[in-house]
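User: Structure tokens for this complex, please. No commentary.
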Amino acid sequence: MKQNILLQLHPLTKFYFSLFILVIVLIIPGYSFAFAIFPVLVLIAVFAGVSKEFLSIVLKALLSVLIIVFIMQMFFYPGDHVLWNWGIFSIKQEGVDYGLLLTSRILAIGSSFILFFRMTEVRDFVKSLEDKGLPPMGAYVVLSTLQIIPEMKRQANTIMEAQKTRGVETEGSLLIRAKAFIPTLTPLILSSIAGTEERAITLESRAFSAPVKKTSLHQLTKSNVDRVLPIVYVLIIVGLLVWRFFL
Amino acid sequence: MTVMIDLKNVSYRYPVSDDFVLKNVSFSIEKGKFTAIIGNNGSGKTTLCNTIRGFVPHFYKGDLEGDVIVDQTKILDYQLGQLGEKVGYVFQNPFIQVSGVKDNVFEEVAYGLENLGVPVEEIIVRVEEILKLVKIEHLREKNPFELSGGQRQRVALASIIVMDPEILVIDEPTSQLDPVGTEQIFDIIRLMKERGKTIILVEHKMDLIAEYADDLLVMHEGELVMQGPVREVFANPEFEKYQIQYPHVTEIALQLQKMGTPLAFLPIRDEELAEALNMTGVKIHD
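Assistant:
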């Protein structure tokens, strides 16, 4: 399962790749290049075996944003070359151009980060940040959030059941369900707040604040590729900058 | 014997509370002793544990009077982080005693050692040993959030004893366990005692306390009302006043005594009953 070369890259290598996409998309003018990035990302996703999740998230998260941004720009960007007119609305050539530029960049940058999170386990990413000097406190916050959300979901179900036994109606029309939401939500939030104190004590009893350097069972390995790739990124970016501003 | 834990006239009041939860508590516990704290709900047992662990006053503020001395050093002079290695604390609610950042039981148990900066190879050896000891090897790949109450309680205990603290404070470790699981936990506690740990246990199961513990502290409404070796405390007629359960066999013996049966001594363990009734020669028939 874990034999995929792309997935085995060090999390930071993958993260730098997303940053790299972000930078080159901003450096290179015009929308055709930025649009061309997307098929490349899809190709990478296919190789990494995550194309299905990748595409579905891009569709769900980005498509609507892109359409709205494009339409807004098309109609409201100031310009002189009117292509089409209807009442107070008019589509201008400049608007279409700018809309395409903006959407192409959003698509390239957004999908590169979506791809990053599809290809990287968050705990690996956090670990790599910790190696880079993120304080353990920060790492804990990120990781515990990931685990606590499903836990809270479970708790919400329990509370829902409990309220049901007390006669709170939780099934039926939208209005009834909305009404049942409040008596469920309050105990959930309150108990979560109360739980933080006990969690702090739990961590403390596991020597979380012990004045020593922590070790970790979870180790990340860096291969030669991981050492070379970031340098390649930087070289390409520098090359592009030189080409763009000095030639 | 060296004194491990020493409390002198300790009173404590939680923040924004008017009443003291601990009132003038004094006792000392020697190294290597197994002391049980008993008392009814709300009598201050858990607060007492928090005090020994240093959560009072380092974590819970409020007013602490008197001296708490752990291993010759005042609790106030410790940093909270330092105490983690010295005093292991397994607390009551097993459902919250999960670090929340680990995906499986093995890593969960290893978490404390990681925090203490123990080298990875040593962590693996120690965790393996403890998983075997606490009999949770079969859970090693499970997510800690998906365990039952009893399983979590064992994981919580394992996570603490793996850190090998000198003092173990254990607050009702068997509340979610069946009788077999309870016996196993007590076996582990006994093993810890054999390894020279100083153990403080809060527990309501008097039969087991009578069998395993050395000393008893009886809490009643924030006061330490009785203390001493287990047998003496149970035998003291004053004990009845606090409405705490006796070991079952003691209860029966007292009932028999009331009905006029003479007792050689007050039994606190099941196997002592016959002897106490001077009936050691009599065979039991089904």
